[in-house]
């Protein structure tokens, strides 16, 4: 599949109303959404891990993630991302695509890193990315994958993440037997959230370097079986 594939949303029915929280609209992301997206991508990775890896050790991961987001064809791009908007404000984000498509995007992602970080930044980034990859357990090649899911802290607990996940399932069910994602071992809230959302933990991987850089020893893979009509 091409690097500019849109798999994120596209469903005109992808909207939900929560009486006490205004109108929640789910829509495809655009390059112009880079500011809120950069902040949410940092949240999705967890700020600690994002800053250690993508902020090159400083609390500035969002501005790099913004730059990666606004170019198509990478693991971070707007073209695999659905946003949740509440009364016009971006409050949540999910990126998702077939694992095989994400694997095809690795080379263009490296180019994206080059453009976002420049040569000196890239030389600092590469060992950090390697540490992150070492802490990323294998994903079955036929799975759908969710690289990032985050909701703005002040909007959590209102069903925004569940609404975003329903969009993912609507796309994924016809194409994949299951959905996978990574969670940092230390992110207890997210692990509980996925557990309650029907995901099963399928093993983890660790990196000593990641632990030294980010205080996070590794990541676990969660998966959820997809059966058309069952993901409600
Ligand atoms: C994990 C995370 C995405 C959850 O987002 P969220 O929007 O708070 O999640 P939801 O509100 O959909 O679900 C949380 C709970 O609120 C409840 N809830 C409250 N109001 C609700 C409503 N109006 N409709 C539906 N559910 C509601 C849900 O029942 C749910 O409980 P459950 O898990 O027992 O079903 C969010 O905490 C987050 O962004 N964390 C930081 C980033 C992160 O860790 N990402 C995951 C790793 S990639």
Strand content: 15-25%
Radius of gyration: 17 Å
**Which ligands, by name, code or SMILES, are bound?**
coenzyme A
CATH topology: Aminopeptidase
Examine the secondary-structure arrangement and name the CATH architecture: 3-Layer(aba) Sandwich
Helix and strand element order: EEHHHEEHHEHEHEHE
Low-confidence spans: pLDDT under 50, at least 5 residues? Answer: 1-20
Output the structural class.
alpha+beta
Average pLDDT: 89
Secondary structure layout:
Elements: E1 15-17, E2 23-28, H1 34-45, H2 47-53, H3 61-69, E3 81-86, E4 89-98, H4 99-104, H5 106-134, E5 144-151, H6 160-172, E6 178-184, H7 188-196, E7 200-206, H8 208-214, E8 218-225
Parallel strand pairs: 5-6
Antiparallel strand pairs: 1-2, 2-3, 3-4, 4-5, 6-8, 7-8
Coenzyme A (COA) is lined by residues 18, 43-44, 148-151, 156-162, 183, 187, 189-190, 193, 196.
Describe the structure.
The chain has helices at 34-45, 47-53, 61-69, 99-104, 106-134, 160-172, 188-196, 208-214, and strands at residues 15-17, 23-28, 81-86, 89-98, 144-151, 178-184, 200-206, 218-225. By secondary structure, the chain is an alpha+beta fold. The chain has one domain (15-225): Aminopeptidase (3-Layer(aba) Sandwich), CATH 3.40.630.30. The protein has an 8-stranded mixed beta sheet, sandwiched between helices. Strand 3 (81-86) and strand 4 (89-98) form a beta hairpin. Helix 1 (34-45) crosses helix 2 (47-53) and helix 1 (34-45) packs across helix 3. The protein is globular and about 45 Å long. The two termini are 28 Å apart. Residues 1-20 have low confidence and may be disordered. Bound molecules: coenzyme A. Coenzyme A is lined by residues 18, 43-44, 148-151, 156-162, 183, 187, 189-190, 193, 196. Coenzyme A binds at residues 18, 43-44, 148-151, 156-162, 183, 187, 189-190, 193, 196.
């Amino acid at each position: 599949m091409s690097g500019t594939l849109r798999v994120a949303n596209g469903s005109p029915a992808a909207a939900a109303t929560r009486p006490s929280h205004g109108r929640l609209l789910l829509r495809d992301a655009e390059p112009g959404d880079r500011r809120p997206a950069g902040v949410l991508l940092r949240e999705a990775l967890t700020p600690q891990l994002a800053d250690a890896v993508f902020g090159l050790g400083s609390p500035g991961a969002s501005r790099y993630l913004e730059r990666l987001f606004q170019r198509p064809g990478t693991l971070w791009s707007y073209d695999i991302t659905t946003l949740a908007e509440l009364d016009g404000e971006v409050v949540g984000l999910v990126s998702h695509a077939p694992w095989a498509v994400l694997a095809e995007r690795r080379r263009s992602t490296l180019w994206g890193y080059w453009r976002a970080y420049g040569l000196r930044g890239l030389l600092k980034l590469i060992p950090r990315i390697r540490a992150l990859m070492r802490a990323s357990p294998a994903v079955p090649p036929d799975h759908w994958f969710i690289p990032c899911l985050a909701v703005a802290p002040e909007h959590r607990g209102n069903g925004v993440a569940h609404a975003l996940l329903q969009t993912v399932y609507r796309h994924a069910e016809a194409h994949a037997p299951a959905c996978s994602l990574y969670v940092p071992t230390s992110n207890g809230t997210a692990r509980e959230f996925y557990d309650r959302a029907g995901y099963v933990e399928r093993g983890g991987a660790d990196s000593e370097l990641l632990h030294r850089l980010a205080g996070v020893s590794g990541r676990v893979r969660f998966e959820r079986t997809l059966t058309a009509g069952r993901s409600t």
